[in-house]
């Protein structure tokens, strides 16, 4: 049976975990964690089924609750949230979807977190040639109303080989190309949350379509796919 809601009990557990982020407490509440983990995984599976009605998803990745503390100043052993990502299918479709569920800090994100060197160069060359189609897509009312402005890390001046005075340097500087939508706890716990996330993901499709077209063609518009 599909799970279409996130419960208050789930968020109550995450709040308690944040207050008691230690192995002894977690082991004592492992069965409660497993119950909520199972329900949350079912929610993400349902969301993937919705996504596949209007996109092609290659895989769902659920992130583990256990933190890697080897190189972190924060030595708390557990994440006080659930999170998962959805990868689009194959070389033809680019970009990904992400959803984090955390009391007070839940958000959905879409786009390109860590484009490889070749993809990043191709995107920048597109902006160097003509960024107007890209600006039209990201500034469309239907997208901005839900996702706001393009976000992501960027270099301080200009990437090597690009003119720091270029008219599109604001885009050429970027290293990431993502959109983020925050959700309140009441929104996450509402009966319509699944529908709202899915509708948000639908709204980003023109952006993904354009970026996929850029990343699968050269500057002459010729396909790079076999």
Automatic annotation (TrEMBL):
<dbReference type="InterPro" id="IPR012808">
    <property type="entry name" value="CHP02453"/>
</dbReference>
<dbReference type="InterPro" id="IPR015996">
    <property type="entry name" value="UCP028451"/>
</dbReference>
<protein>
    <recommendedName>
        <fullName>TIGR02453 family protein</fullName>
    </recommendedName>
</protein>
<dbReference type="Pfam" id="PF09365">
    <property type="entry name" value="DUF2461"/>
</dbReference>
């Amino acid at each position: 049976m599909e799970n279409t809601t996130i419960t208050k009990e789930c968020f109550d557990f995450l709040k308690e975990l944040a207050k008691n982020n230690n192995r002894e407490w977690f082991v004592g509440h492992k069965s409660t964690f497993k119950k909520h983990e199972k329900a949350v995984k079912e929610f993400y599976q349902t969301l993937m089924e919705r996504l596949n009605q209007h996109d092609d998803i290659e895989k769902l990745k659920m992130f583990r609750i256990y933190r890697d503390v080897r190189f972190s100043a924060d030595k708390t052993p557990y994440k006080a949230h659930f999170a998962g990502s959805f990868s689009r299918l194959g070389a033809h479709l680019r970009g990904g979807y992400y959803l984090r569920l955390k009391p007070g800090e839940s958000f959905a994100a879409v786009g390109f977190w860590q484009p490889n060197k070749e993809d990043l160069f191709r995107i920048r060359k597109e902006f160097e040639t003509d960024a107007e189609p890209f600006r039209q897509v990201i500034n469309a009312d239907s997208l901005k109303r839900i996702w706001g402005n393009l976000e992501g890390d960027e270099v301080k001046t200009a990437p090597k080989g690009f003119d720091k005075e270029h008219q599109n340097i604001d885009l050429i500087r970027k290293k990431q190309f993502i959109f983020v939508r925050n959700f309140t706890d009441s929104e996450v716990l509402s009966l319509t949350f699944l529908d709202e996330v899915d509708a948000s993901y639908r709204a980003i499709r023109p952006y993904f379509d354009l970026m996929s077209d850029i990343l699968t063609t050269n500057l002459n518009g010729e396909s790079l796919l076999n």
